[in-house]
Amino acid sequence: MKVKMFSYNQLDTYIHHLSGLTKFVCFLLLTTTVMLSFDIRVILFVLILSFALFKVAKIKFSQVKLMLIYVFIFLITNFILTFVFAPLQGVEIYGTEHVLFTIAGPYVVTLEQLFYQITKLLKYLSIVPLGIMFFLTTNPSEFASSLNKIKVNYKACTALSLTLRYFPDVQRDYHSISLAQQARGTELSNKEKLSKRFKNIISILTPLIFTTLDRIELITNAMELRGYGKSKTRTWYAYRPLNKNDYIAMGVCLAIFIASLLITTFVNHSIYFNPFI
Asked: What is the pTM of this model?
């Protein structure tokens, strides 16, 4: 069976055995660590850790290939736009200017600008594996039950669980409708003009929307028939209590977060690491 993007798959790995709450807390701690720092050393550490955890979770490149391509395109576009609209931002941040070469007019390539943009590029890149890993290794029902155990309203938890479950369903429906349309002669490849391909994609999205609405109605009716929402609490069949490994994982991520704050406050005295001074 072909593995779909954003689809949870139960594997026998350390990451999969952690509680959904643990993975959510670790995700927040590590992403916050990266977002609050422009220290390339901290960012590289989280990036290496992210890809190491990718390997531990046995996530295959084929599962995330399309998503990584989109992310790469976004990062390269962001890299170019930053240089076009703020070619000297790195100089302003680090307070020095080491010119490598001049392109034209104000567009001067400096060592500071390259360092700043590479740091920002790695900053975004380090967060992506964490988010993908959370989606692919977390059971939606178990995650919802874990949140409910820390007093999050169970209705909100159920809505979140249904949302996470719905990603692979939408993807499967889109693939099925796309194959059906192509069997009828609808061309979606590069052989067709862009305007025509866009029109053909719209012909796929229309039945996809109606399929989605039908599924929503079906789920709503099923929940109403079971009396969902009438009680103040509910039970969960997929709840997983926290164990030693959960506390170790959260402790390590918390230590990384605190270490990052200490480096920012007492070593760099700024969110930026300045190697030019």
From this structure: 0.79
